[in-house]
Design a protein that fits this description.
Number of strands: 0
Shape: globular
Oligomer: single chain
Distance between the termini: 14 Å
């Protein structure tokens, strides 16, 4: 009981301490930390538009976090959520522009989402092949594939799917209006948010309540023991990779059918890396990831308010996110030691 209370106090400290350190940093730059924090809260919580933007960013971010969590449960590292999300966005954009552009709404939207999931799965399959067949490092491979997919997307945007009717801006032609999500009450909120939440719950059920989910965790904890007990380790890890790609691809498809309506060179920028960060903070728990991704979404959106109120670059918020990650990881290490 004493050890458990110690871990709980450490968690509270891990939440508060990064904000204190970041406040000291802002003070050292001649800024009022209190005023900056107040402006950030007003922007993302009190302001309706700001809060809606947080929720919109949260949905694909949550899916890229899941794309990191499932492989981690199988003992592999997937830093490729960024590329898989962009692959999903590219696949759904092509489907919405050229393939299902004349399909009725009730059929077309699910098909476009499915194409995004298949595209993300296909790109994750490349990483799976490199890891399981060619014995390449999974972390490095998935990271490099992110850059490759960004280049492929840019090639398509400036080439075959470019919007020729526009003002030469770097984006694709728009998908049909009938394939876009309906927004809620004059905001940009859409059903994609509910899809991300439901998918997270289903992922948790799969991991903790199904036989295949338990097998996945067994492989992640001790693949040698899993193999000795007759489990096909490579098959389970390949499935984890493909599921991760499908989830990240769904995030990209939600961006296209929801807030974007077309593929841009900036679509999904950094969402994969932030999702990987959120998964680490959540200790690869999909339920906890709901809250960690929301926190990161709050921080990234509030970074714009910080830039206005303090004059510091919005990217400065990355320092705070790094501090939060380090603090939580330290608590996680302490928790493991307490359990021994």
């Amino acid at each position: 009981m004493k050890k458990e209370n110690t871990v709980n106090y450490a968690m509270i400290l891990a939440i508060i301490l990064p904000f204190v350190i970041f406040g000291i940093f802002m003070t050292s730059q001649g800024k009022s930390a209190v005023n900056v924090y107040i402006d950030m809260i007003k922007t993302v919580i009190i302001n309706k538009y700001g809060f809606c933007e947080v929720v919109i960013k949260w949905a694909p971010l949550l899916l890229t976090a899941l794309a990191a969590i499932i492989p981690a449960k199988a003992g592999i590292s997937n830093v490729g959520g960024e590329g898989q999300l962009i692959a999903g966005a590219l696949g759904s954009a092509i489907a919405g522009i050229y393939i299902f552009n004349e399909t009725i709404r009730i059929v077309g939207i699910p098909l476009v989402l499915l194409c995004g999931m298949l595209a993300g799965m296909l790109w994750a399959g490349v990483a799976s092949f490199c890891k399981l067949k060619l014995k390449m490092n999974d972390t490095l491979t998935t990271m490099v594939l992110n850059y490759v997919m960004v280049d492929i997307a840019c090639l398509m945007i400036y080439g075959p799917i470019k919007d020729t009717s526009g003002d030469n801006y770097p984006y694709s032609a728009p998908i049909e209006a009938s394939l876009r999500f309906t927004t809620i009450s004059g905001t940009r909120l859409n059903i994609g948010i509910a899809l991300a939440f439901v998918t997270t719950i289903l992922t948790a059920v799969f991991l903790y309540k199904t036989k295949n989910g338990l097998y996945t965790q067994l492989v992640g904890k001790n693949y040698r023991a899993a193999a000795l007990n007759g489990l096909n380790v490579k098959k389970i890890q390949n499935r984890a990779f493909l599921c991760a790609g499908a989830l990240a691809g769904l995030g990209g498809a939600i961006l296209i059918c929801g807030v974007e309506g077309r593929l841009r060179t900036t679509t999904g920028s950094n969402l994969g890396y932030l999702g990987f960060l959120a998964a680490g903070i959540a200790w690869n728990n999909p339920i906890i990831a709901i809250f960690t991704t929301f926190l990161i979404s709050l921080l990234t959106v509030s970074g714009n308010a910080m830039e206005i109120s303090s004059g510091l670059p919005s990217s400065t918020i990355n320092i705070l996110m790094t501090l939060v990650l380090l603090a939580v990881l330290c608590v996680g290490r302490g928790k493991k030691n307490a359990d021994i």
